[in-house]
Amino acid sequence: MTATAPQANTPVSAATSLTEAQFSSPFLREAQARGMIFQCTDAQGLDALMAAGPVTAYVGFDPTADSLHVGNALSIMMLRLLQKHGHRPIAIAGGGTARIGDPSFRDEARALMTAETIARNLAGIEASLRQFLDFETHGQDGRAGALLANNADWLDRLSYLDLLEDVGVQFSISRMLSFESVKQRLEREQGLTFLEFNYSILQAYDFRELHRRHGAVLQMGGSDQWGNIVSGIELARRTDGARLFGLTTPLVTTASGAKMGKSAGGARWVRKEKLPVFDYWQFWRNTEDADVGRFLKMFTDLPVEECARLGALEGAAINEAKKILATEATAICHGREAAEEAARTAGKVFSGGGMGEALPEKSLPASLFVSGLPAFKLFQEAGLASSGGEARRLIRGGGARLADRPVSDENQLITSSDFQDGLLKLSSGRKKHLLVRLASD
Questions:
Q1: 280 a known binding residue?
Q2: Domain holding 297: CATH number?
Q3: Is 160 annotated for ligand binding?
Q4: Which of 124, 189, 406, 428 has an alpha carbon within 20 to 30 A of 35's alpha carbon?
Q5: 262: annotated binding-site residue?
Q6: What count of other Cβ atoms lies within 10 Å of the Cβ of residue 361?
Q7: Which of these, 85, 182, 171, 68, lies nearest to 126 by C-alpha position?
Q8: Domain check: are 373 and 343 in the same one?
Q9: Do the annotations mark residue 225 as ligand-binding?
């Protein structure tokens, strides 16, 4: 660790180099070993503080949808790891800042959401977080329960003039224009509204408020949040003389360069109401060979040494490591029983002839099949093709199967007699499968 620990009245100017950092606190030591740390404002100071006793740290989540997704997974895993080592995690649902939208590294402004949409999304974010974090305090092992907060609780009460007087004077326009996220937006000539420009100020206010209310001394987030995190540290230093810290996680991309969690099928949601457990398991099973060891370290609780061993496997053996990654990552999100059921279903599906209990389902009215439904239309109705033309191309290309049998005629009529106990398995290619269930009209 190369940087000296700044005093409370010393500005934060740069991140500490972490390339050769040797941490003494268990949390930072394990996070570094798992490749979860990208930047830290003062690694030595934070390490000493965390080694001395429990600290409170937080991560913010914007309620832009009614579920978190795989792109949020690394930040969530940081909170899990923090809790594992006896520190207290706070998850902030940005009900207040959602009314503005985070402009960081975006080409254009987010569409403003209604109060009803924000409320619905907040409920979904809370449900997502409860899948990963323990919000109960455990007296026996002393582990503090996670805290869920909503920044609307304090931001909604702010007077604009009071905010300008208290906080506005602490921010330099030239400093804010130097943030990489802002510079990129302006260089693309997309413009940046005054509304969006306030986002960094409000996030900084959040950090100071959480320090005052709950003693939070560390903010964690993705690498795109570095400028916002530093702003919060500077605000608390100037107004309260507080010594706060910032830590960011790396941008996770796949070996082929794609952003983690992005695919042609859309976001990989963590709530089963948005994405079936089997599809979540299958997402991790489809990890590229070169990413297996890295993703095992980041997204499972397996020991680092075991992750490295599994990631070094080659040939057919790496597929077994992928199954372990899929099952362990799914168990964290959906529970061990659901994860193992998804693994068993995958075994049945890919060994041929099996339907499996964990396959996603689509209910279609039985009346559709009275006179027979053309095969291409069935694939469209089931959601395995976005249009009739796409369904026809799938069949013509040999990628469509019904009950594990290839479909050769796109106009083949499918009737209720093709169903087994009211179920029919559909497959698109080798990796997308679902069950169609006959439903009464």
A1: no
A2: 1.10.240.10
A3: no
A4: 124
A5: yes
A6: 13
A7: 68
A8: no
A9: no
